[in-house]
Amino acid sequence: MNLLAAPLERSGIEVLLPHRSPILLVDRVTAFHGPPRSELRASFRVAADHPILAGHFPGRPIWPGVLTIEGLAQTANLLGVLLPLIGEDGALTVDLAAAREPEAVAHRGLLASVEVKLLHVVEPGDLLEYAARLVGGRGPVHRVEVSAAVGRRVVARGSIAVAVES
């Protein structure tokens, strides 16, 4: 069951993550499923006027692969932070649409490890669609399988570990 009644927009994401523009690389969470499925889907539009594109590379802008990986890490982080917010009834314990302050959420995720392969170039105007699925972990560390796609083309794939602190 998708635990989001509607897509979670940037203001709700800012309640869950400490990142802000220009390094917040998730615009929208489109789906979140709790256990046993434990997965999250999100997206980010690579704006043609994003400041990083002016220097990477002049004349032929390409979205840096490291920023695709950062977007995947933020998506994995969102999954790790949302999982402890599921109550015994299976519903979210925080109304993310009403919460506007990061203090409303007691949990924070920290990047622990990354193993991601970049498979294709991402260009200005592309919509990156992120997927994160919990595949294991121990204690506060969650191992998450991740992928990023533009349309039907997978542009990055791998795994990320997130340590969730409270």
TrEMBL record:
Keywords: Lyase. GO terms for molecular function: (3R)-hydroxyacyl-[acyl-carrier-protein] dehydratase activity. Its EC number is 4.2.1.59. The keyword Lyase applies. PANTHER family: 3-HYDROXYACYL-[ACYL-CARRIER-PROTEIN] DEHYDRATASE. This is 3-hydroxyacyl-[acyl-carrier-protein] dehydratase FabZ. It comes from Enhygromyxa salina.
